[in-house]
């Protein structure tokens, strides 16, 4: 059996009450205790101190199945998946809202999402270098704005003055 610092996940449920709508506390605690009783070496889940990659570890735990082919920890998977996607800081979210505030001003308050998302993706690629501005779009911009891949010279000529 493993020596986990957290004996029960009830404190986590109290801290994040919205998680209670997905599974019952009893099922979650039962799975947590079963998780603590796993033979980690048998499943390739050796713990080497406190420095383990959470995504790797939980990814392996979430794929464990019993003899009937059922996942061993479906309730833990739901809870941990939700907890692992939470940002540990609001800074990145605040930066995105700051960019959005600069884009969507009082004069441009009717911009729809289809316009704002590409503008934000474009804004992310603009960097000031000394006295000049450099535009290095990420590869993700083409995922966000697939229409950019279909721009041809014919499109460009239609925008140029005659």
Automatic annotation (TrEMBL):
<protein>
    <recommendedName>
        <fullName>HAT C-terminal dimerisation domain-containing protein</fullName>
    </recommendedName>
</protein>
<dbReference type="InterPro" id="IPR012337">
    <property type="entry name" value="RNaseH-like_sf"/>
</dbReference>
<feature type="domain" description="HAT C-terminal dimerisation">
    <location>
        <begin position="72"/>
        <end position="124"/>
    </location>
</feature>
<dbReference type="GO" id="GO:0046983">
    <property type="term" value="F:protein dimerization activity"/>
</dbReference>
<dbReference type="InterPro" id="IPR008906">
    <property type="entry name" value="HATC_C_dom"/>
</dbReference>
<dbReference type="Pfam" id="PF05699">
    <property type="entry name" value="Dimer_Tnp_hAT"/>
</dbReference>
